[in-house]
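Follow-up to my post from last week.
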Amino acid sequence: AQSVTQPDIHITVSEGASLELRCNYSYGATPYLFWYVQSPGQGLQLLLKYFSGDTLVQGIKGFEAEFKRSQSSFNLRKPSVHWSDAAEYFCAVVKAGTYKYIFGTGTRLKVLA
Amino acid sequence: EAGVAQSPRYKIIEKRQSVAFWCNPISGHATLYWYQQILGQGPKLLIQFQNNGVVDDSQLPKDRFSAERLKGVDSTLKIQPAKLEDSAVYLCASSLGPTGIETQYFGPGTRLLVL
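User reply:
Got it. Predicted complex:
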């Protein structure tokens, strides 16, 4: 079955530290890949997406993600975290040729001042 | 540009009661989605509309859930009768088109608590 795994339920980092959130997927072919952020009381907001081409994708708010086909991963990174980045982050995949998002279970990020 | 609007933001009901949620997508977006997000889980697609037609409702519990998008614009999701396990956030999203490439824009959600 198609699945998306975010192995870290909670992550805590200090403000200014670097961040990496992990996402792995299980599909036969490369799907479309997305990262969304959900702040408290807010809907999901798209950070970045990957369809093809350059495997390092730049997004909003200083985030980037790298697609690694060999590892079936699409990890989200930020070099220096700000307190306002505290939120829940969701990885999502769409199987090429379809339209249905499959979301991971999310990673809740806490930022220490 | 106005975002996806949802109401109410919060709803508390008792089991076996009925409840309805409303969504107004971004103007011009032909595709509308309803998701259920249970605490600790990612959103799960319940139903997808393309204009006023249903594209996918394979994960909609049709014995108790119903949804409509009569004029191809706003949409209503109804639960009747509600069960305890329906406690969740119900998210509405819209996109220009139905393909996986189109970015989905999400509303703030309706948080439902069934007692």
